[in-house]
Amino acid sequence: MKTRIIREAIQLFGERGFDGTSIQSIAETVDIRKPSLLYHFKSKEELRDEAIKYLISRWVNELPRLLTNAVSGYDRFSSIIMSLVSFFLKDANRARFALREMLDRPGEIGELVKLQLSPWNKMIVDYIELGQKGETIRKDLNPRAYIMQVMLMVLGSVAMGDAASVIFELDSEPSGARIDELVRIARESLFTQPDKVEQKKKKKAATD
Amino acid sequence: MKTRIIREAIQLFGERGFDGTSIQSIAETVDIRKPSLLYHFKSKEELRDEAIKYLISRWVNELPRLLTNAVSGYDRFSSIIMSLVSFFLKDANRARFALREMLDRPGEIGELVKLQLSPWNKMIVDYIELGQKGETIRKDLNPRAYIMQVMLMVLGSVAMGDAASVIFELDSEPSGARIDELVRIARESLFTQPDKVEQKKKKKAATD
DNA sequence: CCTACCGATCGGTAGG
DNA sequence: CCTACCGATCGGTAGG
Predict the structure, then answer these.
(1) Which end of chain B is more exposed for a tag (fewer CB within 10 A), N or C?
(2) Which CATH entry fits the domain spanning B44-207: 1.10.3720.10, 1.10.357.10, 1.25.40.620, 1.10.10.60?
């Protein structure tokens, strides 16, 4: 029951925001009375806390799978970004809830995410810095700031896809041009010369 | 008085969200009583509407100035992006309010922004497509989707700078590495070969 | 622009 | 997990 409440809370917090969602309305969707919900969570704030922790840990737990399953038809990098997107795309309210929490209480959420994400963050930073010592990744790139901007595009594209589609007259189908362009931007601004990397890949594939 | 209320409303809606802000609290910051505020705006929803319209028109009205003042020390493109950022950076709650509105009611806000932004949007799309016919801008770029992603980075960097700084361990000073990297990403993923463009510029400057 | 006031809903508790 | 209930606050109105 507890996790069912949390899952519904993420939906409603994501759609309408924390202050726009009454615990009454959450209780209704899981078909119990309000005081019963407050038996599982001492307060609305506690439910919020458990919900964001649940979302973060779900995401971090899927990261290894997202990174390893990432070699499909596309080249490896694009495939990683797309599986990252697809995690949030499976349920856009995850991205909306995450964004709203960052707006509502930047400090707390920042610390929370940092704690769970830091090993992965370090891994990617190291990978980028290694590529910068070689010739594959652009030297005038700030690894941490780069990762942050890509994450903003990922979360933003999913969470605000509806509004953005209207504004820029894009088709609102989620896996459409928006995501392709996001992948392209992330790729082109990361690697030194796409051609060189592509050639390397193809050469390697040919010799394999 | 009306515009003073609107300005304070943007602050508070941006900080705490629409549902997290009582009209009572807005009335207090402008030092009147609640019913007096409701004399200017029939309802809280009407205040919301006028506030977002005020913000959008303010932004659109500054666009010409942002685009023409844009030739400073930096190259033209970077300068345009940075003055775009600086409009929201002057007051981060503008960006927060805009983002929150897109989350709360994507359809209405989408239409509203589209209406006021479409001439500017068309201008930039035309500029990009022209560059694509030439050799300056990458041909595998979706103009509308590109503009959308850049706008997401601009708004996101400003609105969620605090949380993102904590997560990715970046200095929280606003005009720091985050914005530089955003400009770099937007630039590198737009132009075909930065070197070529740079050389052209320098050549032109030399012959001038 | 104010005082006085309203019904509805909010988060939360008592007690079982 | 429930019924019954609470004080506080919400958006909004009457009437001046």
Answers:
(1) C
(2) 1.10.357.10
